[in-house]
């Protein structure tokens, strides 16, 4: 008899298309995939060597729940230098996590009680909503619209706040839109957070992947925000290390300490060997990050130019960060219809925009973390089939 004891909470998790999409792309190599949200580059050579060395030197044991001291110190140095975030005591103000996915889960579990509210972007990264729901909190969407560049409207945030609102998740550069939040918007959100006593969970997974004149600014570096912002970072995107499962969070020591306590009951710590490789990434691989960013910048130009020539799609907002284009569908098809049509006829895999929330309906997410010849091939197919 099939197992029937699944919890209601798990049975009600949204059935994400992403896992299905990744499986299709893996199984059928004739499909040109603009689907998955991970770098196509291998991890930097020095990182791979450091990982191998860590295995040979028997760094195969558990690590402390906060993360290894040497890694926390390297992260603190990077946060101070690159993000202008003040860190006084790395062991109390930073936690290393199994990717930022784990940090998102732990941050929400540590700050939102049953029935309390957390503001989340719509469209936004697809784990925010189910994670809040899993703990019986209330995710409240704030709308991002292409008509104003997918920037956040602070008046809307203010209107959505109730006495149950614990905080807000912001994500810049954004998955799925590629939008980089403007400094003015970040300053307004910071003021509002102080006024309403909100925690800002700032997901900066794509912090280094910025193009043109855009600049990445960590909201945690703004004056007076040290105790109001939990900043989430990862090695997955900029350093092309998604399989290492390594990320980190920094913020108020009370919250970080709570997350460290909680870590004992989740994964205990991220992979010890990955943590050692992470130190090498931070200390020796900034050139690799820049090399990959430059390549993404080239691909971004090609995909945007190409998409402008595809009937039935429109680039309303130029993405300035991450590695996603988010064209609008203008031929009347829904997101799912367009993605299915393109997969079947053009053999190009895209992600329906509604996967990221109701405001993503009518859009497709196309990842350009794919080699240039494939992007060119995909554009050729889109031009041929999309009407
Ligand atoms: C916005 C955003 N945040 C967090 C993550 C999680 O990444 P990881 O758990 O690999 O650090 C992703 C991955 O796609 C993402 O797009």
From TrEMBL:
GO MF annotation, one: transaminase activity
The keyword Transferase appears for this protein: yes
GO annotation, biological process: amino acid metabolic process
Domain spans labelled Aminotransferase class I/classII large: 30-370
SUPFAM superfamilies named among the record's database cross-references: PLP-dependent transferases (SSF53383)
Subunit record text: Homodimer.
Name of the protein this chain belongs to: Pyridoxal phosphate-dependent aminotransferase
